[in-house]
Design a protein that fits this description.
Elements (H helix, E strand, L loop, with lengths): L5 H13 L4 H8 L3 H14 L23 H41 L13 H17 L4 H6 L1 H9 L4 H4 L24 E4 L2 E4 L2 E7 L10 H16 L7 E8 L3 E4 L5 E2 L2 H12 L5 H7 L4 E2 L14 H9 L5 E6 L22 H8 L12 H14 L9 H11 L5 H5 L7 H11 L9 E6 L9 H13 L3 E4 L5
Helix pairs in contact: 1-3, 14-15
Length: about 475
């Protein structure tokens, strides 16, 4: 593990203190030993207050002291210095005297004229020219040194030996060092900042998967197969995470029920990914298995995030996911508006400004003495409304099936709709409560991508769909209705 900086050690200790994360879990998350964590924590406790003391951060002056010398030491040093000066003076005088004796004979010899020199001969001018020519020929026969060749200049040299000899006058260039090839970057050891999901690649290292696991997810045509595809999408993304990435898995259902894999975001180690895979595959494909296994990890009571009252449904699961400070969030949502009212505590409706008496009647399944009576005009109007909103090719050919779908969308209903009487949730108010509960500013909101996995001919309420689309676009994310699974 690379050496951590002082700032990283401080953030690890502060995160454990602020979020009340146990020491063992914090050490496992960042791959450090408990002894190092304890020493960092003690160092922060003992020395953390020094930053508030006066003069903290100013350079301190260190007083320089020189040792004092005694009188005896000064006398010895002075005497030694004088002796050294005297010896140097005698040596200089001796060298000057010796050099004069060595140069005097040379000077005398040079002052005596040479009798054989042509300058002192009595010969005529012609003879002198002949002697001068013969002397020049004799001199030309003598080999020239490299210095003489350089002094004669390039013109004289080229006149004798040619232009090729110019290269001899030029200094040889120095041998340049051979460049070394830089090895390619190892992409396996490089920090990865990409997450793959449903065939797309997204930029980010911290990712949270939010999966809808309500009872309604297994209701409707092809529900079991659709739920398996949702789980496979999360599993396929988990196994491709880089070991340098971080992740968490959040399951939500009904209005304010949720569970997460860990209290904080987890390192994408093999062990943590195996926990997530076991959790997802253990959910099963029946409502009984789903209820038993969806809450086996960290329940909402132990999570750090506490969303405000009035934050329900998909926004509640999204709030838990944002509390882990990720870069990316993938929300796989089902038909959450059809949650079973009887299974939801009344306290979960707080902050929604619903009529308590009507809520009580709805939770009891309505008045059993009243039979659903829908006029023919209402039925025909519902059919025309649905056919005008949807592509005729996506609707069944049977008019009775079209009528059933239209009444379900409008909240009117047949016997099944009355038996599962629903409460109309003010989703615009829920969205406002969700925005108010966010503990981060707009620039720190993670990129959120919604994938609506709904039964055939079922749509989210208009207010919920619009607010989800608005939030996805504002966070630079996307909203896909009924995605195509591989």
């Amino acid at each position: 593990m690379p050496e951590l900086s002082g700032e990283q050690k401080l953030r690890i200790v502060l995160e454990s203190i602020i979020r009340k994360v146990p020491k063992e879990e914090q050490c496992q998350k960042y791959g450090i030993s408990e002894s190092d964590f304890v020493s960092w924590q003690q160092h922060l406790t003992q020395n953390g207050g020094k930053i508030f003391e006066p003069g903290f951060g100013q350079p301190q002056r260190i007083a320089q002291t020189t040792p004092k010398t005694g009188k005896g030491t000064k006398f010895i040093l002075t005497t030694s210095l004088l002796l050294n000066i005297a010896l140097i003076t005698v040596a200089i005088v001796f060298l000057i005297f010796d050099s004069k004796q060595a140069t005097t004979p040379n000077l005398v010899a040079e002052s005596v004229p040479v009798e054989e020199s042509p300058l002192h001969s009595a010969q005529p001018d012609n003879d002198f020219s002949m002697i001068e020519e013969s002397g020049s020929e004799a001199k030309s026969d003598e080999p020239k040194s490299d210095v003489d060749q350089l002094l004669t200049g390039p013109e004289a040299v080229t006149g004798q030996t040619g232009e090729a000899d110019l290269e001899m006058l030029l200094a040889k260039p120095l041998d340049l060092p051979t460049p070394q090839v830089i090895p390619p970057v190892d992409t396996l050891t490089d920090l990865s900042s990409e997450v793959s999901f449903l065939g797309q690649v997204y930029e980010g290292r911290h990712v949270v998967y939010v999966l809808d696991v309500g009872d309604y997810i297994l209701q409707g045509e092809g529900a079991a197969q659709r739920f398996e595809q949702m789980k496979d999408a999360v599993l396929s993304s988990l196994v491709t995470l880089s070991p340098n990435s971080y992740f968490n898995l959040v399951l939500y259902w009904n209005l304010r029920e949720t569970s997460a894999l860990g209290k904080t975001i987890l390192k994408a180690s093999r062990e943590n990914i195996k926990f997530a895979i076991d959790w997802i595959t253990g959910l099963g494909s029946t409502i009984e298995d789903l209820k038993e296994n969806r809450n086996q990890f960290i329940p909402k009571e132990l999570l750090y995030s506490k969303p405000l009252p009035g934050v329900v449904g998909p926004w509640y699961g999204l709030s838990i996911g944002i509390s882990f400070d990720p870069d990316l969030i993938f929300v796989l949502a089902g038909n959450n508006p059809s949650f079973p009212v009887a299974a939801v505590p009344k306290s979960h409706f707080n902050g929604l400004e619903l009529n308590q008496r009507a809520l009580l009647n709805e939770s009891k399944g309505g008045n059993s003495n009243l039979s659903p009576t829908i006029s023919d005009l209402t039925r025909q109007t519902a059919i025309k409304w649905l056919t005008s909103m949807e592509n005729p090719a996506s609707l069944p050919e049977n008019e009775l099936e079209i009528e059933k779908i239209a009444l379900q969308r409008l909240g009117l209903g047949d016997n099944q709709a009355m038996a599962n009487a629903q409460v109309t949730i003010p989703w615009e108010m829920v969205f406002e409560n969700f925005l108010s509960s966010l503990e981060v500013n707009a620039q720190m909101i993670p990129q959120s991508h919604f994938f609506l996995c709904l039964p055939p001919h079922v749509r989210w309420p208009h207010d919920l769909f619009n607010t989800a689309t608005e939030f996805a676009e504002s966070s630079r994310g996307t909203l896909v209705e009924n995605p195509r699974f591989p």
